[in-house]
Each structure stands twice: as C-alpha cells, then as structure tokens.
Amino acid sequence: MTFEAFALSDPGCVRSNNEDYFISDSESGIFILADGMGGANAGEYAARLSAETLYEFLLEPANRDAPEALERGFLQVNATVREAAGTNPDLEGMGTTLLVARVTRNIGEGCIQISSVGDSRAYLCSNGDLSLLTEDQTWVAEVGARLGLSDDALKKHPMRHVLTMAVGSSEDLRVFSRNVEMKSSDQILLCSDGLHGVLTEKTLGETLHSEKTLPEKCHYLVEAAKSAGGPDNVTVVLIQLV
After folding, report:
1. How crowded is residue 220: how many other Cβ atoms within 10 Å of its Cβ?
2. What is the mean pLDDT of residues 222-241?
3. In terms of pTM, does the model score above 0.85?
C-alpha cells in the first residue's frame, strides 16, 4: 500500500502570520493539520506544539500500529498544550484544531484512520464523488443548525467562528474518529477552514477529480481561496492511494 502526498500552507490575504501548521510524511503514513488560535503568537505555537507532539507520539514503536494510539495521543497533546499555557502568561488561552490521517497495518489494507478536534476537515474523493469524513465541532454545527437557522443566517451569525471543542481549551476532550477504506486513486483532502469556509464542495470535488497533479491541485485550491478573499490562513494536505 503506497501513498503519495503534497501539502501547502499560505497566510491568506488578510492575516500577516500563519497559525496553521502541517506535517506530511508519506514514509510513515502520518499526516497532520492544526489551525491555532490565541493572542500574539500563541495560536501559531499551539498548532506547532500539537502537531509535533502527536507526530512524535505516533512514531513511538509501541504506538506505531496500535489503532487505539490516536485517542491516547490526542489526550497527551491536550495535556501538553494546557501545561504550556499554564506556565507562560503569553500563551494563556491558546488552543488549536487538530486533524490527523494515519496509515496503520492493523486496521486493514487500504484503510486509513481519521481523528479530529475542532473544525479542520477531511474529505474523501472517490470516483469523482466528494464526501465529508469529519464532523465540525462548532457552534454552527452543534447549536445553530439544530435551532433550525437557515444557511444564510448561519453564515452571518456572530457565533459562526466559535469552536465548541479545541485542543487546550479544557481537560475533557471529545475526539471524532473513524476508519476509511480507500481504493486505488482515491484521495483524502485535509484542510483548514481557510479553505472549506471559502470554497464550495463542488469546487473542491471538481479540483480533486481533475487531471492535475497533486501539487497542481494544492496550488490551485490555495490560489482559489485567496482569489475569493483569503480571509484566513489556508492549508491543504492531499493524500492519494496509488
């Protein structure tokens, strides 16, 4: 089972710094995306600390092919971020989304594990069909939609950017996890809300289904998000089973 991958991150058109952080390692089969939040440079630090802590945890021999290691890894990352915030006033209140796609031999050939906290998303593109693999942990998804508010109202609501769960925000962490079976040429897209909050799923699906190479697809998506205003940092990690 061989995977190819390409990743790209851009500050966007409004923000001067980039609080997104990614790790894309085809050799180990570990792909991570984090979208940080917090004052000054705290969000940037939280994203990097979370991604690197989880990456090192998953590389440990005892965790390398253990299916349950992801949830334990998220809990360790959460504790690490909270400890860092508690010992440095400049980092107080920092947090981050955290999304990982991981290949492990113990869950089946062509199968990949997905786990997430926050609103960074994973999509599967198979035979031209795009499907969302994750669930947004946001006020819009968990409260606003259940109140029956229209899509237009939700897009303009003052709570539209509020996360209901983030790494570092509390001791209790709700981790969304699932296993995804992939076929040859299937693609998984990991992205921050700077992409999925700006571009339609139709655009995402058409781009992934195009004849472009993985780097071309990533560059196209980032530039499309920037052309649409680029209000936030934009990060894409694209993985393909070959």
Report:
1. 15
2. 97
3. yes
